[in-house]
Specification:
Blueprint (H helix, E strand, L loop, with lengths): L10 H4 L10 E2 L4 H11 L3 E5 L6 E6 H12 L2 H17 L16 E3 L4 H8 L6 E5 L5 E6 H11 L5 H8 L2 H4 L9 E3 L4 H11 L3 E5 L5 E6 L11 H8 L3 H4 L6 H6 L10 E2 L5 H11 L3 E5 L5 E6 H14 L3
Parallel strand pairs: 1-2, 4-5, 7-8, 10-11
Antiparallel strand pairs: 2-3, 5-6, 8-9, 11-12
């Protein structure tokens, strides 16, 4: 039986995860506690509920915490002089006041009876990363991320309708627009806080990391905030204000790489212009990444494809088949 996007419902997505257990945070939970939950459950956002009644009041996303970190600690001199007090305030800040300070984290929900295209339309917006799925009683029965959508289509690819199968056979060269914007990158000598600031300023979720020759060597995403040592305060200060190269453990010698084997720096996922989107989808799911980079002959990033881009193209192709 083929999978027809126009006839699919949101319910088909959440049925893929019968063991779903909702994680959430309270308005008076701290940044430190929320980052710990995000890290332990390998997620990037949480619904926030009232302490009394457990009524959802919003969402806290890793991008909100990045925004808070950038606006609070962007000046090195301030950190050097007031580091411990400032970091303690950062760790103990209640997250109720931080919901959607990034401007990219409003609460979104959809009924599980709605067409799947409604959910795709939401998640094709680069400012929407997760959507709550509710039943007739408005109970949350799922929390769907862009990654979850990609995993769903990857699993269903043999059953896709012909138009979507053809879409996956297209090459990167056909997917990327000719007038695309330059890839946002940062030199690996800069501080980690500088990378987070660049993510915040450009309203993206990740940036490429380059060496002095402009060659792509890594990438930093908002989720890397979860890798920082939140407590005690000293290591957190060190993590934010050390060079990206050191944080990612990019080393030149084999000896150093062996010493740091327990802290590997995952190489950025690189694709070629003639690679098909089937290969891209396979690589994204296998490596659990949110973006792939197109590079030129010198290894410099010339394009990037995000989960959001892929979802938008699936939606566009699916809707074009509806008469």
């Amino acid at each position: 039986m083929s999978f027809v996007l126009a006839n699919a419902t949101v319910k088909q997505i959440i049925q893929e995860d019968p063991a779903f257990v909702l994680q959430w945070a309270y308005e008076d939970d701290t940044v430190e506690k929320v980052l710990t939950i995000l890290k332990e459950h390998k997620i990037s956002s949480l619904p926030v509920v009232e302490r009394k009644g457990d009524t959802p009041v919003g969402t806290i996303d890793i991008l909100d915490l990045v925004t808070f970190a950038v606006t609070k600690f962007a000046i090195v001199s301030t950190l050097a002089q007031e580091s411990y007090d400032a970091m303690q305030q950062f760790n103990k800040q209640q997250i109720g006041a931080l919901m959607n300070i990034s401007g990219r984290d409003q609460w979104h929900q959809v009924s599980y009876k709605k067409p799947l295209s409604d959910l795709l339309s939401m998640l094709s917006n680069p400012h929407i990363h997760r959507v709550a799925v509710v039943n007739e009683m408005s109970d949350i029965v799922g929390f769907v991320s862009q990654s979850k959508i990609i995993q769903f289509f990857h699993k269903q690819q043999d059953k896709l309708e012909p138009s979507l199968k053809k879409l996956l056979q297209d090459t990167i060269e056909h997917w990327l627009p000719k007038d695309r914007h330059p890839v946002v990158t940062i030199n690996m000598k800069h501080f980690m806080i500088d990378a987070f600031k660049l993510i915040w300023e450009n309203e993206v979720s990740g940036v490429g990391v380059v060496d002095d020759n402009g060659k792509l060597v890594a990438n930093i995403s908002a989720s890397d905030l979860k890798k920082l040592h939140i407590s005690p305060i000293g290591p957190l200060i060190h993590d934010l204000y050390q060079p990206i190269k050191e944080f990612l453990h990019i080393r030149g010698s084999v000896e150093d790489r062996v010493k740091l084997a327990n802290f590997p720096n995952p190489a950025p996922l690189v694709v070629q212009p003639n690679d098909t989107m089937t290969k891209v989808l396979d690589d994204i799911v296998k490596n659990k990444v949110h973006r792939v980079f197109l590079v030129d002959d010198q290894g410099r990033a010339s394009g990037v494809i995000s989960l959001c881009d892929i979802i938008a193209r699936f939606l566009e192709r699916g809707e074009s088949q509806v008469v």
